[in-house]
Every structure is written in C-alpha cells, then in structure tokens.
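Tip: read the tokens left to right.
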C-alpha cells in the first residue's frame, strides 16, 4: 500500500467522526491486492510513541499480518538509560538515538511525525495533530482496528512553584540544554566581572530527586568536573564547585537494596556530593532553592540553597493525552497512569481494541492479592488450612520478601506493613490469622497496582504484545476488521502478561551498583565495565553500538569536549 493522505487538500478525503475531521485512509494498491485478498483486509494497527514499548512491538511483530502506522512527535528512538552521560559530553547525543523509520520499515509500516491528541473509542478513530508547511496545526482522524498507547509519561511537578527555573531530563533536547547550561555557568564563573559570591552560586549544582536518574546525573557531573575541569577551566578551583542531591526519603536509590543505597551515599560522601535526605523542595527561584528538612528532633525547618543550575527529576506523571482518555472512561480512576487488565487491554475501552504499555500504563495487578496468594501457598506447603493458619512475624517477612522481588516498587508499602505487623506483634499475641491480615492490608492501600516506570517493563510489555498480536492474526485472520463478536480472543490465544524483574543498576561515579533479584553488589572499575557492557548489549542497533564504543574511546583518549552547541 502507498501512503496516507493526511492534509485536507490531498485527494479530498472522507470526513467524519464527532468533530467532522478528514479521515486518513490506508491506501491499498489494487493491482497488488485483489478485493478479497488477505493483504487488503489486514487489520489496521496504530502504535503511539517511538519509545521502548513501541519499538519492542515493532521488533517482535510479524510484518505480514497488520497495516502498521506509528505516530510520534519525534522520529527517533531514544536509549534513555544512557541519557545522563550525554548531559556532560561523556557520550554524544547521536549515539543514543536510532531513526525510527528504520525500525518501522522492518514491520513494513508507516511513520507519521505527529502527535495524538484524542481518541474516539466507540468509533475507533484516533485524532492526530500535525503542523503543516505554513506552520498551522491541522487535525485529522486515523482509523484503527487495534490501538496501542505507548506514549510514556511526563515529569511530575509535585505542585512545586518555580519549575520554569529547572531543567528536566526526559528527552535528547533536555540533555542538550543541560550541557549548554553547565558550560555557560562555567564560562560565566571565569569572567573577571563575576563576584566571588556569584561565582559560588553559578557553580552550585542541585539535583532534586534521589532516584536513579538524579543520582546518575550527579555522578556524571561530578566525573566531568573532576576529570576535565582542570584542563579546560584552570581558573576554577574544584572546591568552589558544589553538587547537592535533595531527596524526600531517608535514602537515595530507595527502591534498591538498602546496602546499595548506603554504598551510593558513602561514595557520594567521599566524592563531596552533598546528599540532603528527608528534604522536600518547596519552591525553586531563579537563583536559589527553598526546601524543608526534618532535623534530628523530627522538627521541620525551611532552608535555602543558592544555585546556578537545578535538575528536576522526581518521578513521572500522566501525559495530557492519557489524562484526556482517562476522563472519558468512568473506570479509569487512577490519577497516575492508565489502568489495564493483565492482558494489557485498557480498562473500560471496547474489548481488545486499545492496549496501553510502558510508563503511561499500570497493570491492575493487586499486590495485596499476591501477598495473600503467597501466604496461601505457604500454608499448603506446610499442610495447613490457609483460612485457619496463624502467621508469625518471620513467616510474614519471608512472604513479603518474595513479593518484593516480584514487585520492587511495592517495597515502601511492604516496609509500612512490616512496621504495622511488628507493632501488632508487640502489642498482642505474636501471630495473625488471615482475617486479621486482611484488615492490616486494608490499612495500607490494598490496591498497590503500579509496576516500575522502567525501560525494562516497557520492553517486556512491548514484546508480550507483539507476540500476542502475531497469535491473534494467526488464530483469526481478519477478525479485527469484521464487526463480529469473537468473545475474549486475547485470553483464548495467549497467557496474561507477567512482569519478570531482572534487576536494577545505576552508575554512581567511577563505580556502579547492581540489584539483580535479591543478589546485590557494588564496586569500582570492574562494575563500571559491567554496567557499560549491559547497556552496550541492549543498545538498539550495530550503528549505535559502534558510536558508543567510539565515544568511550574518544573520552578516554582526549577527555570530554568542554563547549556549547
Ligand atoms: P518512552 O520511551 O518515554 O516513549 C514514549 C514515546 O511516546 C516517545 O517517543 C514520545 O515522543 C511519544 N509520545 C508522547 N506523547 C505522544 C503523543 N501524544 N502522541 C504520540 N506519541 C507520543 N529505565 C530503565 O529500565 N533503566 C534505566 O537505566 C533507565 N534510565 C533512565 C534515564 C533517564 C534519563 C530517563 C528519562 C529514563 C530512564 N529510564 C530507565 C526509564 C525509561 O526510559 C522509561 O521507563 C521508558 O522510556 C518507558 O518506555 P515507554 O515506551 O513507555 O515510553
């Protein structure tokens, strides 16, 4: 098939839908495709986004089975785990991106550089916005038989004032802006007209958020300042520069094993990266950051930190498109992500027509239910009736540990449960029965639904969906284009999605930490090489692997390029 007419001038397209917009058609070349051929009646599969989830689908999908269209405002796939390295020039920006059209062509699909703005669920029409040659925004509908939402997430502002004074790190453009700002501050600090006080402010770098992204950025910045500053900016003394990480929890990297968080904190202490824990940013002003901190007595005090640069990296929030979709569906009540069933189908959408994967979604996978399930199997293993079994504190800890391995993101909730159980243990009798445990589960939010917002999860979900779409096409060719109720085909052809947590890793400045499913370790140079090889192997193409290898060699031989672009 040829192309999709998208503008109103092209071939006078059919109009329709609730907003009476032009409707883009998939054009099938009639010579090649007789009226009733399989080719002509292939279902229309629309993938939103060119990130981890969509790329995993494209790489798994059987190219013959669907008319594939990918819609994304950017025409590249970004290898996010290495993005912090691009902010200081350890890696070049182009080494982290792969043109999406190359990947789409593998699935014999189309790519539209445009943004999805709305979905008419009952009419299976996706509203797309595109900027035309005159710079005007035009909207059109793209019909689909199956739609996959893989639009990722945006930065979570947490209601804090002054975020316009911060930098973010989500996209390649963010990395470029950060690199330029860091360089600009270093250049300004060298000016003879800059006062000492102003110089210290310009060289005060603050990272708000002690998760992997914030920590890796702080580590990369520290490396650059240590390794390349002296050569390029001999007038700036290392002790004039300060790097601060503000973290709301008690530890940085708090979803990792506790020993690893402590290792990372010790490493930062050694490298003079200041970690401010139990601290919450209240407001970011142009030249300073205001935050509250709990002191040793548990009292909250407000403090000020002069700064020349602030990175805001405090978790993810829903995109506008996802909010709009959630507003249309009564059962979508989760404020953080679109909820799907375990087959990754969007809850509340017509069955089997819309799927959501990656950061924009959460599988309704009740952790509390899993806890009960594990406790039940423990009872059966011991030959006891689960409903009558009494659970001791060590037994509870064993079960909680198993659940934590499967749902690392529930670690905090499980710790809260541990505390409740411990208190209960002290106050009363030392054991709980099932009914009592259920009450405890209700005291915390018993519906801990989220999965981690990671590339690992988006990739697994994309692969799962690609395989399922292949099976659906084989099991019932053409079923998605005919308006026939085939029942729950997804369940009939493929198992439910199961997340397998393979582990977490983070770079912490000439050393790295690994948390592989209960096996955690940390270390220096060897760990850094292991960290690099994991990502090198995962990198999306031979082209990007070659570029990464060249960047690392160039940096080792000549240092980083200390300049603006
Ligand atoms: P994304 O990869 O974010 O892709 C979303 C896509 O949707 C983008 O192409 C975007 O342009 C497009 N899009 C957005 N809105 C629309 C719209 N309206 N219409 C059409 N398209 C749209 N995870 C790890 O597992 N390990 C790590 O080490 C790691 N490090 C990270 C470091 C950084 C700096 C960042 C930012 C993230 C990191 N992550 C890491 C998280 C990981 O990148 C995300 O979890 C992953 O990208 C999610 O994949 P996704 O497919 O859901 O969304």
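Filled-in amino acids:
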């Amino acid at each position: 098939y040829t192309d999709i007419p998208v503008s109103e001038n092209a071939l006078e397209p059919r109009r329709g839908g609730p907003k009476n917009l032009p409707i883009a058609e998939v054009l099938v070349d009639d010579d090649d495709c007789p009226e009733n051929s399989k080719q002509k009646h292939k279902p229309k599969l629309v993938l939103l986004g060119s990130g981890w989830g969509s790329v995993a689908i494209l790489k798994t999908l059987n190219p013959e089975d669907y008319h594939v269209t990918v819609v994304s405002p950017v025409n590249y796939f970004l290898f996010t785990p290495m993005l912090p390295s691009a902010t200081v020039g350890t890696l070049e920006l182009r080494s982290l991106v792969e043109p999406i059209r190359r990947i789409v062509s593998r699935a014999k699909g189309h790519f539209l550089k445009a943004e999805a703005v709305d979905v008419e669920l009952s009419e299976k029409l996706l509203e797309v916005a595109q900027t035309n040659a005159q710079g005007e925004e035009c909207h059109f509908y793209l019909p689909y038989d199956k739609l996959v939402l893989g639009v990722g997430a945006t930065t979570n502002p947490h209601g804090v004032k002054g975020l316009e004074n911060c930098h973010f790190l989500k996209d390649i453009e963010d990395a470029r802006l950060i690199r330029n700002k860091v360089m600009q501050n270093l250049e300004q600090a060298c000016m003879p007209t800059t006062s000492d006080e102003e110089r210290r402010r310009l060289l005060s770098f603050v990272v708000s958020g002690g998760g992997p992204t914030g920590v890796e950025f702080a580590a990369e910045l520290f490396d650059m300042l240590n390794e390349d500053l002296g050569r390029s900016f001999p007038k700036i003394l290392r002790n004039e520069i300060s790097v601060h990480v503000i973290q709301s929890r008690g530890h940085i990297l708090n979803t990792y094993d506790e020993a690893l968080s402590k290792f990372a904190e010790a490493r930062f202490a050694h490298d003079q990266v200041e970690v401010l824990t139990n601290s919450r940013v209240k407001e970011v002003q142009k030249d300073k950051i205001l935050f509250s901190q709990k002191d040793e007595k548990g009292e909250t005090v407000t403090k000020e930190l002069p700064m020349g640069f602030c990175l805001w990296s405090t978790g993810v929030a829903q995109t506008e498109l996802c909010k709009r979709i959630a507003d249309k569906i009564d059962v979508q009540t989760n404020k953080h992500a679109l909820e799907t069933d375990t087959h990754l189908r969007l809850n509340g959408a017509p069955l089997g027509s819309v799927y959501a994967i990656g950061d924009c979604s959460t599988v309704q996978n009740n952790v509390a239910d899993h806890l009960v399930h594990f406790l039940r199997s423990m009872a059966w293993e011991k030959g006891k009736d689960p409903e009558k079994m009494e659970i001791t504190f060590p037994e509870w800890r064993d079960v909680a540990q198993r659940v934590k391995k499967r749902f690392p993101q529930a670690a905090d909730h499980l710790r809260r449960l541990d505390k409740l159980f411990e208190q209960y243990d002290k106050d009363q009798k030392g054991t709980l029965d099932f009914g009592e445990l259920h009450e405890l589960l209700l005291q915390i939010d018993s519906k801990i639904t989220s999965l981690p917002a990671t590339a690992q999860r988006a990739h697994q979900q994309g692969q799962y969906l690609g395989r399922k779409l292949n099976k659906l096409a084989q099991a019932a060719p053409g079923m998605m284009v005919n308006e026939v109720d085939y029942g729950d085909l997804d369940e009939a052809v493929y198992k439910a999605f199961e997340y397998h947590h393979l582990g977490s890793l983070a770079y912490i400045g000439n050393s790295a930490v690994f948390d592989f499913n209960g096996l955690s370790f940390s270390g220096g140079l060897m760990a850094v090489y292991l960290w690099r090889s994991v990502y090198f192997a995962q990198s999306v193409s031979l082209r990007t692997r070659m570029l990464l290898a060249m960047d690392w060699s160039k940096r080792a031989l000549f240092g980083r390029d200390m300049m603006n672009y």
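Residues 20 and 448 are 41 Å apart (CA to CA). The pocket of flavin-adenine dinucleotide is lined by residues 48-53, 71-74, 80-81, 83-84, 115-116, 150-152, 169-170, 212-213, 319, 321, 358-360, 453-456, 458 (CB under 6 Å).
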